Amino acid sequence: MPEEVWLLDEDTVASDADRAQIPPELEEYLNVFDHEKAGTLLRTKASDHAIELEEGKTPPYGPIYPLSRTELKELWAYLVDNIKKGRIRPSKSPAGAPILFVPKKDGGLRLYIDYRGLNRISVKNRYPLPLISEILDRLSGAEYFSKVDVKDAYYRIRLREGDEWKTAFRTRYGHFEYIVMPFGLSNAPATFQSYIYTALVGLVDVVCVAYLDDILVFTKDRESYAKALRQVFERLQKAELYVKPSKCTFYQKEVEFLGFIVDGSGV
């Protein structure tokens, strides 16, 4: 691999506080923590998210709901940021899902696009999500854990070319459509689970488990742990997936995963 791949501006990787959380074993994978690369648009791939519609059906358009000044400010910031990152673009689509905002746990606001009309006429992808009970059972006997959260996971998947118009949404500031896979699509979880499993093939249930954008690396001893961690980050790098240090925990004897506390004795 060309040497320049590793010559990174420290400011693009993480803050000093974040860098302090990255174990030395991952120094060669600092680009996986690069927050600027995490915002770049991927090239088209065979794994791009397709939106297949039932025969003869067209996505509906909905009303524009009134928003507060705070919500309008949040909307404008979202549009500017995601147009800049190439995730959305102006649209002339006949479709138009309505939008609203829902509160986050931290008191902020999250944009919600009501794709229920589109989802009703979408041909369903039945790729399964892993059973949480089986994931937890697989961790039995492990002593060392690292939790890895994929940053902006869905946005790392592009929409299949020609399907973008189906994701159009209406706002006070214009009509837009996604270029990447947005939240709220009925088949989005299946698409990302397939993508992450393909990226980690051969490692899942051996040194890691993955449920959508949540990955847990595990081993029974510390000696094999560094190798397992590097294997997972090598795959993330190849799949062009990125993580945020502040949402990762490394070398833990006990960790919270999928809402459960996991340690060497189990859940």
UniProtKB/TrEMBL annotation:
<dbReference type="InterPro" id="IPR043128">
    <property type="entry name" value="Rev_trsase/Diguanyl_cyclase"/>
</dbReference>
<dbReference type="InterPro" id="IPR043502">
    <property type="entry name" value="DNA/RNA_pol_sf"/>
</dbReference>
<dbReference type="InterPro" id="IPR000477">
    <property type="entry name" value="RT_dom"/>
</dbReference>
<dbReference type="InterPro" id="IPR053134">
    <property type="entry name" value="RNA-dir_DNA_polymerase"/>
</dbReference>
<dbReference type="Pfam" id="PF00078">
    <property type="entry name" value="RVT_1"/>
</dbReference>
<protein>
    <recommendedName>
        <fullName>Reverse transcriptase domain-containing protein</fullName>
    </recommendedName>
</protein>
<feature type="domain" description="Reverse transcriptase">
    <location>
        <begin position="83"/>
        <end position="262"/>
    </location>
</feature>
